[in-house]
Amino acid sequence: MTTARPTLADVAAEAGVSVALVSIVMRDAPGASAATRERVLEVARRLDYQPDSRARLLRSGHSRLLGVVFGVQHPFHADMLTGLYAAAAQVGYELTLSAMTPGRDERTAIGSLLQDRCAALVLLGPQLPAAELGALADRMPVVSMMRGVRHKAVDVIRTDDVRGEHLAVDHLVELGHRKIAHVDGGRRMIASADRRQGYRDAMKGHGLEAYARVVSGGFLEEDGAKAARELLDDPPTAVTTFNDMSATGLLDVLLRGGLSVPSDISVVGYDDSSFSRLAHIDLTTVAQDIETLTTLAVARAVERIEGAPVVHREVVIPPRLVVRGTTTIPSPSR
Amino acid sequence: MTTARPTLADVAAEAGVSVALVSIVMRDAPGASAATRERVLEVARRLDYQPDSRARLLRSGHSRLLGVVFGVQHPFHADMLTGLYAAAAQVGYELTLSAMTPGRDERTAIGSLLQDRCAALVLLGPQLPAAELGALADRMPVVSMMRGVRHKAVDVIRTDDVRGEHLAVDHLVELGHRKIAHVDGGRRMIASADRRQGYRDAMKGHGLEAYARVVSGGFLEEDGAKAARELLDDPPTAVTTFNDMSATGLLDVLLRGGLSVPSDISVVGYDDSSFSRLAHIDLTTVAQDIETLTTLAVARAVERIEGAPVVHREVVIPPRLVVRGTTTIPSPSR
DNA sequence: GACACCGCCTAGAACGTTCTAGAGTCGATC
DNA sequence: GATCGACTCTAGAACGTTCTAGGCGGTGTC
After folding, report:
1. A255: which chain B residues are within 8 Å (Cβ-Cβ)?
2. pTM value?
3. Which structural domain range is residue A99 located in?
């Protein structure tokens, strides 16, 4: 049934040339005349020859392959993948993906990439301890996206999260809010700490320390929902959240709790995930610049692979506020 | 900086045994004493040896590797990936992913998997013409999920979509609706045709042909939104949509158009994507049984790879209606 | 006319693994 | 004490590719 795939040798035999020459033609490398090039390509097409990337990589050491770990539960990661594919294609690299799912942890995901011998690792919001990432980075280039890592070998491309929360708070204050709460992303992630810090700084900068309130949350919808229940006893007039997922969970509980958004309470998310654009979520949120983030991440990985000098280990991109329908001036009655 | 990865030869030299023996130990194959096994493993651990899956697959022909094509724009596919990983792990297979993005089409995605020499292809809702899929399937096992393919070589694991729309319509009719519209998935997908057919059948079965109305849509949010604008001139009391994404787009336009859901108009989606569970979308929808679909798909791929006899080329799973907050009895005024 | 050079091509090794065939050792059986 | 089988181990080929080194004509230079 499944007949063996044709190899370089098959094409070579059919075209009456050597294996090496076919290899040259397939790689578009110099060393073949236009005439034979044409003939070989014709045969390859006819036999439906597909190069075997395994053998190719095995022999040629350098792999032009970037391993990407993403989380299936993070809608935002889907947007990042789109950007990464585009950026990689731009510089002639391939991507190989490994997903984290509820039943497949980050260590497993990374392990499978290591066996694939990709040339570098791009991790979307890694949760592993810095020491572990560092150990990995001592053996191959590792780019951490959207999370700072305090280890000299790990490259970081991320958004300025402190600034991001500043934007969110500034926006709310400008609208007239004072009683603004923040639902953080839990204690595991540095991004969470940064955003929390940004919130605190901004509140302080506006002289609103007295109104500051941080509720412990997480990155999932249910985390936002839980935080919302906690807030309902003494609702603020506005909330900023760690991310859009958490914000939607929060929104839901607020709505069911009888508050209307944004007239009773304003909500700001983070990430500008594609679903936050969904018109009837219509979430005001802090956008990360996906194109810049992904382009830089790929560029950095390639620099490391090809041994180019790297200037800044950590690159921090400014965020941008996207105002949609979940924020407005505070209700006069409150 | 990046020092060369240790190979079998390194481990063998360090442990004072042959390369072949180390291979035996690493594969947990018979032919090594407990004592050496222990010693070799210790050395491997110390050197942090990682088997090179490329070389391994290259040599051993059979790859225990399933190539999966998924769409980054389909939140439902993320749920499927989770199931596929679990099912594959269960039977000792690996997954290699290739994503379709707005800038990376299905042909490209499949092409990269072919180069990886995976043993079979699992395609989530493929859009390619049946002839093309068939040609592919003549060379290697191909499992199409959630889409029927009329070609004898392509295996199909899908939900009974005709039945699914029946469930949706039955539910609405039971609530008292008569003027029920359907927003389809466009003309490219067979699943779309099936669901449209299911809708028509069901309407007819209830003697409601006169009320039937099909609006052309698609699988994206904007397709649902567009359809909604079309419906607004003469709104039905209920709508079923091709999928959840389309339903959310539709919901949004309806809400902005001044209709409230579900009191003015009921909406039923399709897929039970994780976001449809988001409390404040809270969509009534037709669920596909992810665990069964993924388990069967992996089992089928493995059967084909290992040459086991296959009984039914196409397996059709019953859907299940999940009633949430977007459906209720029709408003008496309409 | 010898030499160098260039463009086109090929032979054969190498990548890291698995597989096949067989070598060596030991204890048991005849 | 030879033969056998079971067990442990090893040498070397093979997988499909790329890379290195070189061969073979032809053209140009001195």
Report:
1. 280
2. 0.90
3. 64-159+289-317
